[in-house]
Every structure is written in C-alpha cells, then in structure tokens.
C-alpha cells in the first residue's frame, strides 16, 4: 500500500511539472505609475528544443499586449541543428514588430569555435528584421521621447564590453540594458544604467526548499546573494530576472511558471 501511494504521488507530481511547463504567466511592471511610456515585452530562455510554450501563443500575446518593442535575452538553441527551428519560432511573433535580442551561454556553446556558423546565424536573424545587440546600443522613440536599448554580451561565453556597448547612448534618455546573465550587473558602475532585463536562472525552474536548486545547480553570484527572480535593485539599477519560457536540462518546472514580462518605462 505504501509503495502504491508513493508511486501515485510521484506520477501526480511528474504530471504537474509537465503541465507547469505549459502554464504561461504574464507578469506586469509599470515604472511610469500611469501606464504611459515605452511598453516592453521581455522574453528570455526560449530553449526552442525544450519548451512547452509555442510561438503561436507568444504571437497571440503580442497581439493582445501590443508592445512597442520586444526584447529577448538569450538561450535559444543548444545545437546548430536547432537554428532553423528557432528562426521559424522567432518569425512567428516578431514579424512587423521592433524586436531586439542578445545571446546567452547556450547559443555560444552551440557553435563552439565555429565562428562562421555563428555569423551566419546572426545574418539569418537580422534577415527577419530583428536587431542583434552585441555590445551596442539601439535607439527607440515613442511620443517624441527617446530610449536607449543597450545590449551587453553574455558574461559566461561572450565578451561583454560595457564601454563599447554604451558608446551610442543618448545621455538624457533612459538607459535600458539587456543581457543574458544578470551577474553582469555587478560589473556595471552604479547608475550608469537605469534598468536591466535578464534571464539565465529560470527562476530556479524546479523549486526545492532552502534554495537548494540554486545551491546545487548554480554558482552565479546573484544566486549566492539570494537574488534569483523578479524585480531587484542591484548597484542602483532596477534589474528584472525573468523565469523564461523554455527549460534547461529537463522539460519540467515546479513553482516556477514560464513567463512573459510586460513592462512600461516612463
């Protein structure tokens, strides 16, 4: 009897963790307090080879939320063979929308030393009208107000260059940074960036008590500081750690639903 109960509970828990990978949540932040300003949709950790969230669901969210810009912060593929799938996935919801992205550790790992393959991947992304921000800034304008979107390269496998990334910034405009690994915020001098959007931690993906999922699986500095998800303030910068859409290692989630963030910047 005891064994049967254990098996039933285990099966139910497993079924729930599979279900949670598809249980998308829209998170919202409004720094303007008035609902006016630049409306951002932030996505991260798509992991198209291991996700329960279809591109069609994102497309419907884009239509419903009508963002001014879509920002995507890395970890799309784990192998060059996934590139075509990611491009189709991206095209489904990014078509006709101002979209910018940076790369994560998995994307660089996929290509390894194949720099030409990575360059081809970037060209194919840009052919869709999506801007790849690797240590550079793009300017977005809404209602006569300009905003800097600063793309920092990945901390682990890329080559982040803070000074180079910010060369094109307009000084009197909000500075909105995107990067994959939020630990980069610890290397940015206080308040030279106003906002940062990142991913990488998956919100833990599979929750365990006492933050064991981070202690066992992560050696990132912010995790060690207890900063793992949601809105945080680090170095005077408002940092949002998105739980992401896809999954790493296993296609399961527990108490860490996949998310899309909608954020308004004044």
Describe the structure.
This protein is an alpha/beta fold. It has one domain (2-265): Purple Acid Phosphatase, chain A, domain 2 (4-Layer Sandwich), CATH 3.60.21. Helix content is 29%, strand content 23%. It has a 6-stranded mixed sheet, with helices on one face. Strands 6-7-8-9-11-10 form a 6-stranded mixed sheet, with no helix packed on it. α6 links the parallel β7 (145-151) and β8. It starts with a helix and ends with a strand.
Overall residue-averaged pLDDT value: 95
Poorly predicted regions are none
The CATH superfamily title: Metallo-dependent phosphatases
Estimated radius of gyration = 18 Å
Oligomer designation = single chain
Give the CA-CA distance, first to last residue. 60 Å
What is the overall number of helices?
A: 8
Shape: globular
- Percent strand equals 15-25%
What top-tier CATH class fits best? Alpha Beta
- How many distinct beta strands? 12
- What would you say the CATH architecture is? 4-Layer Sandwich
Give the biggest sheet: 6 strands, mixed
User: Largest sheet, order of strands side by side?
Assistant: 1-12-2-3-4-5
Order of helices and strands: HEEHEHEHHEEEHEEHHEEE
Number of domains: 1
Residues in helix, %: 25-40%
Based on secondary structure, the structural category is: alpha/beta
What fold name goes in the CATH topology slot?
Purple Acid Phosphatase, chain A, domain 2
């Amino acid at each position: 009897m005891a064994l049967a109960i254990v098996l039933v509970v285990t099966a139910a828990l497993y079924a729930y963790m599979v279900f949670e990978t598809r249980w998308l949540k829209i998170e919202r932040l409004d720094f303007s307090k008035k609902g006016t300003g630049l409306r951002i949709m932030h996505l991260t950790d798509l992991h198209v080879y291991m996700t329960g969230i279809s591109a069609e669901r994102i497309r419907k969210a884009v239509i419903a939320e009508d963002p001014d810009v879509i920002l995507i912060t890395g970890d799309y593929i784990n192998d060059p063979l996934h590139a075509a799938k990611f491009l189709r996935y991206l095209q489904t919801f990014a078509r006709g929308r101002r979209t910018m992205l940076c790369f994560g550790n998995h994307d660089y790992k996929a290509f390894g030393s194949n720099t030409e393959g990575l360059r081809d991947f970037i060209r194919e992304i840009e052919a869709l009208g999506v801007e790849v921000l690797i240590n550079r800034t793009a300017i977005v304008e809404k209602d006569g107000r300009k905003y800097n979107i600063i793309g920092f390269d990945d901390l682990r496998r890329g080559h982040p260059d803070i000074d180079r990334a910010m060369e094109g910034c307009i000084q009197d405009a909000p500075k909105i940074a995107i990067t994959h690994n939020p630990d980069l915020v610890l290397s940015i001098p206080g308040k030279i960036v106003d906002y940062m959007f990142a991913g990488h931690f998956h919100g833990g993906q599979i929750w365990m008590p006492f933050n064991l999922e981070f202690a066992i699986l992560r050696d990132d500095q912010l995790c060690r500081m207890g900063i793992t998800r949601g809105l945080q303030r680090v170095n005077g910068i408002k940092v949002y750690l998105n739980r992401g859409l896809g999954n790493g290692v296993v296609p399961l989630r527990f108490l860490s639903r996949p998310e899309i963030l909608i954020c308004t910047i004044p």
